[in-house]
Amino acid sequence: MSKQLIVELLCISAVIIVSVIVMSRNKRNSVSVGLRINGFISGLLGSFLIMAGTVKFFDPFTTMFASQIALSELPFPTLARWAGQLGEIMAGVLFVLSLMIKQRFTPKLAKLIFYTASGLTTVIMLVAVYVHLLPGVPAEVLPLQSKPPVLTLIVLGLVWLNMYLYIHKRHVHQ
């Protein structure tokens, strides 16, 4: 197992552990299971996206990400690199923000923040699926060194599940 793969797995494990701790803390509150799951997924996505965007500032991740962009021949490679990296961090911050201070926002602003984070993450993950599926992009420069976009599809599925739960809880509580 390569050093890069070990670092990736350690980062993902840390995100999951922190999210489980936060979820267990919320268990004591008198909040429905659906709302707790929605909060857990938002926290998991937020912390994962912040971590994923931030590690791309450091080697070997910065080199791998630059290689992905170059080999995928995305238009405007420098812009695509910064948009992907900062987009992940911004989406993660918005997910965490939607959790931490939602009581201070108007319902309309909270909804906008949540949907912006979800939409931004969806676009980023769809581009990532495209990059994974290109034959010219080798597995060595992809997350978890995996050619099938497994992690990307898991994140995308979590975003969509989270949106479903968010919409469902809004209809239940109106």
From TrEMBL:
Recorded superkingdom: Bacteria
Q: Keywords, A to Z?
A: Membrane, Transmembrane, Transmembrane helix
So where does this one cross the membrane? 6-23, 35-58, 78-100, 112-130, 150-167
Protein name, please? Answer: DUF1440 domain-containing protein
